Amino acid sequence: MRPPSSSSPSPSPSLWRDTDFRRLWAGQTTSQLGEHTTLVVLPLFAVLTLDAGAGQLGVLRAVGQAPILLLSLLAGAWVDRWRARTVMVLTDAARAVALVAAAVAGLLGLLGLPALVVVAFTVGALSVLFDVAYQASLVRMVRRDQLVRGNSALEGSRSAAQIGGPALGGALVSLLSAPVAAAAGALFFAVSFVSLRRIRRPESVPERVAPVPERPEHAAPVRGRIREGLRFVAGNAWLRAVCLASAAFQLSFAATMTVYLLFLPRELHLTGATVGLALAATGPGALLGSVLAARLPGRLGHGVVLVSAAVLGNGALLCVPALHGSSTATILALLAVNFVFGTFSQLVNVTVMSVRQAVTPDGMQGRAAATITFVGMGFTPLGSLLGGLLAQEWGLRTGLLVTAAGMMLSPVLMAASPLARLGRVLPAPREEPRHTEWRRSE
Q1: Are the C-beta atoms of 117 and 63 separated by less than 8 Å?
Q2: Other C-beta atoms within 10 Å of 324: how many?
Q3: What is the pLDDT of residue 430?
Q4: Whose C-alpha in 19, 215, 218, 330 is 20 to 30 A from the C-alpha of 62?
Q5: What is the sign of the dihedral through the CA atoms of 98, 101, 107 and 112?
Q6: Nearest alpha-carbon partner for 66 in 17, 24, 118
Q7: What single DSSP character describes residue 214?
Q8: 40-83, pLDDT tens digit by residue?
Q9: How far apart are CA 62 and CA 121, in angstroms?
Q10: What does residue 4 show for φ and ψ, rounded to 5 degrees?
């Protein structure tokens, strides 16, 4: 361990001079661009081409999000025992293959709603693995005093994907075809595959403890590691609060987006390209949020930033149900709302990720990230179904107002938790568990 010293090198220049970090950043950027393109292509194809109803769209989105609930905990256990780079490379390759298959099926006239459901589930499952892996990869690649800057760079790349992905996906579906849009997503995953494969730095795996092959009880140590991750998060007041706030946000946000994707083309009569443009406005805001996240928590305190940013970002979506028509003023208002939402939601995302990484030991990073993803985003399939039901029963405008109002529960939970009291300096990680669950039988 490096002793504290005034002669310690500054983390700022070394991060971007590090060739492997740049390759990680480039690969994650293009992978996120492919993911965000696909997230818009599939629902818009269902709505605009297959004339899917509110309930069908809710099912499609729920199936695509179901892997978060089904696979997150397993993904965390796997990533803690494998090289994160290997996981990212394999998931990029598999997503590219899945989307090429979808493109071919579309060109043959076979890309109906059942095929979209299969593709959505496959891409969603692989994306869960990739997202857990790239978060763990950063911790293994950079020093802890570089985490905020590293997260700011990676979340900035997610923002770049939010700019290009929705706009590109909407334009391709509207102007060309769904198969072309799917093929574009596959191309992005292929580029990410090449970039990540070029990383040369050896990667240490903190959790790589080889089981004893002669003992059958060691055949499935994954359950023990999953339980350790659950207990670690449940025993940490900050991470418990992150889970609760994330669950409230993701449930309401999934419901909101299901209604939102119907509200824009059917209530406001916007084209697919305009819908993509409106969604893409979150990207520039998210870029700004990533920049602010590297500065504001250290100046104002992490707790103040988390609560205030969540109030401003989530509250912005309450303006959307008040819009009418497809006039220029309506489109400009949508762009402004999405920009504000992108800015402050990204500020929350980066700050929460830095808090989670700072209080978590290296060997628990994958499981902590996966547990929080499981508890928080595991509610998204239910939210998507709820959004479709509310839109069908109450109408698009009322359904959007109710679901957007539900997003305000997240900042309320954060304000009432220890997260609100976090200062400018983040606490140190607690001691890492020692795998007592599955070693007890040795």
Answers
A1: yes
A2: 11
A3: 59
A4: 330
A5: negative
A6: 118
A7: T
A8: 787 777 776 667 676 777 778 778 877 877 777 777 767 777 77
A9: 9
A10: -65, 135
- Which one, of 13, 22, 16, 39, lies nearest residue 283 by Cα? 39
| Amino acid occupying residue 439 | R
Distances (CA, A) of 389 to 114, 121, 187: 20, 21, 35
Q: What residue type is 164 in one-letter code?
A: G
Q: Which two tokens stand for residue 185?
A: 């997503």
Tell me what percent of the residues of the chain surpass a pLDDT of 90: 11
pLDDT of residue 264: 86
Mean pLDDT, residues 320-335 taken together? 86
The torsion angles phi and psi of 190, rounded to 5 degrees, stand at -65, -40
The pair of three-digit structure tokens given for residue 50, joined into one six-digit string = 């297959």
Alpha-helix residue ranges (DSSP H) falling in 263-364: 272-280, 282-293, 296-300, 302-316, 328-358
What is the distance between the alpha carbons of residues 26 and 34, in angstroms, rounded to a whole number?
A: 13
Tokens of 137: 């990869």
Exposure pattern of 125-159 as b/e (b: 16+ CB <10 Å)?
A: bbbbbbbbbbbbbbbbbbeeebbbbbbbbbbbbbb
Task: Tell me how crowded residue 430 is: count the other CB atoms within 10 A of its CB.
Answer: 13
Place of tokens 């109710």: 402
Q: Is 433 helix (H, G, I), strand (E, B) or coil?
A: coil
- Write the Ramachandran bin of 51: left for phi over 0, alpha for psi from -120 to 50, otherwise beta: left
Using the 8-state DSSP alphabet, how is residue 441 labeled? T
Q: How many residues does the chain have?
A: 442
Residue found by looking up tokens 């929350």 in the block:
348
Residue 325: left if φ>0, alpha if ψ -120 to 50, beta else—which one? left
The amino acid at residue 237 is A
Whether residue 115 contacts residue 52, with contact meaning beta carbons closer than 8 Å, is answered with: no
Give 211 or 203, the one with higher predicted confidence: 203
Predicted local confidence at residue 82, as pLDDT: 75
226-264: string of b/e by CB count within 10 Å (b at 16+)?
bbbbbebbeebebbbbbbbbbbbbbbbbbbbbbbbbbbb
The structure tokens listed for 344 are: 């402050």
Q: Is the pTM of this model over 0.70?
A: no
Each residue's pLDDT tens digit, 250-282: 889 888 988 888 888 888 888 767 777 787 777
> Residue 212 corresponds to which tokens in the numbers above?
């004893």
* Cα–Cα distance measured from residue 177 to residue 293, given in angstroms and rounded to the nearest whole number: 38
What is the residue-wise DSSP string for 15-57?
A: HHH-HHHHHHHHHHHHHHHHHHHHHHHHHHIIIIIS---HHHH
